[in-house]
């Protein structure tokens, strides 16, 4: 999908992009090899050729962050198939208060089949979080553009969060799905372990508070809850990506 993406060009929207595909210009290299499409001046074509050549260069170099700058956040999903081998799925738990008065309690990171959980008062530090995120080129969350990433930036000002970011909450809205992560998981046939079924963010706060009062089993359950959240982001991202590609190609909403 990335090499078929023309909305990174200034002045090109989804309608023009789709028209070019329909006119036999399916990707960047074809665009470079063809004369200007109907309605595009030779001068503008030359400018677009320069921008596409730059995009091809950065893609060849594996520089995902370049595309974080030239694509709108709502289009970062287009990077998923290209960079999913270096994607990290992220979910945080907090004390239930805003960043000014609250704290991050757990950061769950799932990548390449491995789960990492950083816990406040133990392994969760800015340096450790930077180290954990550094190898990855794409962050995937659910509602993270509104909650998880702003909260992390507020609590860890030196955190390097310049990755492209695929927010599955807004991908879901574009596809016609409503509700939070758990209802959407159920619609998509994704399961959780029985002892964390029905838990939500407020239950996560309660479990943290119980652990703070000395109940070790509550932290264990909180970590299982967080693990379920973060692991289920991967199959959800795969399914949403396929549906977003289909929607983008047709200009409609697909729930297939």
SSE topology sketch:
Layout: H1 14-22, H2 28-33, H3 42-60, H4 64-70, H5 80-83, E1 87-94, E2 104-111, E3 114-119, H6 126-133, E4 138-141, H7 148-155, E5 165-167, H8 168-174, H9 181-187, H10 201-212, H11 216-231, H12 233-250
Parallel strand pairs: 1-4, 4-5
Antiparallel strand pairs: 1-2, 2-3
Helix pairs in contact: 8-12, 10-11
Can you give a write-up of this model?
- The chain is 47% helix and 11% strand.
- The chain is α/β, with parallel strands linked by helices and 256 residues long.
- The protein folds into two domains: 2-61; 82-242, Nucleotidyltransferase, domain 5.
- The chain has a five-stranded mixed β-sheet with strand order 3-2-1-4-5, with helices on both faces.
- Helix 8 runs parallel beside helix 12 (233-250) and helix 10 runs antiparallel to helix 11 (216-231).
- It is elongated, with a radius of gyration of 21 Å.
- The two termini are 19 Å apart.
- The model has no long low-confidence stretch (mean pLDDT 94).
